[in-house]
Specification:
This protein is α/β, with parallel strands linked by helices. The protein has helices at 16-22, 59-72, 101-112, 143-160, 174-184, 205-210, 232-243, 258-268, 278-289, 295-309, 319-327; strands at residues 32-39, 45-47, 55-57, 76-82, 117-122, 135-137, 140-142, 164-167, 191-198, 248-252, 272-276, 313-316. Bound molecules: ligand PBG.
Length: 328
């Protein structure tokens, strides 16, 4: 490379056309997965106070949102349920209810759309009265009985028509168990998006309000979610999930873990996603509402950072707004 003054990097930044011409990374609507909270409360829409702009939706409203996503060109949505406290039990049995909120929403969306991927979380925490992602044996989360239940839950979701099942629990062996259960039942085309490197993070706080688990949750999730200090361990987690049959891998949270995304993409060359989680959303929205940052610029810049780090797409509550901006 030549040196200054022969090389002046500002030359290619001097005008809009030139910046566009040399831009290395672009963000498009195809990179977006819209994360949607659904509820069985009976109300059409309910605000989530810690996530300004996000509402829990009834099934009918979720169908409208899905149609909106399809019209905007968003490739896929991801559903997260808030169920009434009366349905929550120690073993999260509601996760296996084929007539439950999530399967019914999936069916309704599938009837109403034709070119929209439907991703569902495979998790027990929306359905447990203790808010953990597994079955408890005293103070412990029991791995193997949880995995068995998750595989059954994944089957229920696949039967309802889910295109992608996304286990978000961080139990050992769950991707393999889910893949085997799907294969046995003839659902070999259902994709698994694995929450492969999911960290025990403070950034999930608003989500636990959104799905109604924060009040009950005792302790934290550090015995199953990853320690925020670790990188090599993410490599081992992802290697296992790929070996067990994952089609796509995810890093969660997103912005505090861009280094993990970059390393995983490098190492595995797999379809790689980030989850821009509720706390990341809340931080941006709170600052924007105070007029402290330019909302649109910051949202689009945050989404671009995931692409630059190596992501193929981003799960984000900002998806419909970003899609609208990108279309302008
Ligand atoms: C748990 C789950 C969590 C999220 C998605 N699935 C939170 C947790 O692990 O407690 C977080 C999503 C967000 O913060 O936006 N199965």
């Amino acid at each position: 490379m030549s040196e200054y003054p022969l090389m002046r990097l500002r030359r290619s930044r001097k005008s809009d056309w030139s910046r566009r011409l040399v831009r290395e990374t672009v963000l498009t609507v195809d990179d977006l997965i819209w994360t949607i909270v659904i509820s069985d409360s009976g109300k059409a829409r309910e605000a989530v106070p810690s996530m300004p702009g996000v509402e829990r939706l009834s099934i009918a409203q979720a169908v409208l949102a899905a149609k909106q996503a399809e019209a905007l060109g968003i490739p896929a949505i991801a559903l997260f349920p808030h169920v009434s406290p009366g349905l929550k039990t120690a073993d999260g049995a509601e996760a296996l209810n084929a007539d439950g909120l999530v399967p019914n929403t999936v069916r309704a969306i599938k009837v109403a759309t034709s070119n929209l991927g439907v991703i569902v979380d495979v998790a027990l925490d929306p359905f447990t009265d203790h808010g953990h992602d597994g079955i408890m044996d005293g103070e412990r989360i029991d791995n193997d009985s949880t995995v068995e239940r998750l595989a059954q839950a994944a089957l229920v979701l696949a039967e309802a028509g889910a295109d992608v099942v996304a286990p978000s629990d961080m139990m050992d062996g769950r991707v393999g168990a889910i893949r085997a259960a799907l294969e046995d039942a003839g659902h070999q085309d259902v994709q698994i998006m694995s929450y492969a490197a999911k960290y025990a993070s403070g950034f999930y706080g608003p989500y636990r309000d959104a799905i109604g688990t924060s009040a009950a949750l005792t302790g934290d999730k550090r015995t199953y979610q990853m320690d925020p200090g670790n990188t090599d361990e993410a490599i081992r987690e992802v290697a296992l999930d790929i070996a067990e049959g994952a089609d796509m891998i995810m890093v969660k949270p997103g912005m505090p873990y861009l280094d993990i995304i970059a390393r995983l993409k490098d190492e595995f060359a797999m379809p790689t996603f980030a989850f821009q989680v509720s706390g990341e959303y809340a931080i941006i929205m709170a600052a924007a509402q105070n007029g402290w940052i330019d909302e649109r610029r910051v949202i689009l810049e945050s989404l671009m950072s995931f692409k630059r780090a190596g992501c193929d797409g981003v799960l984000t509550y900002f998806a419909p707004r970003a899609a609208q901006w990108l279309a302008e």
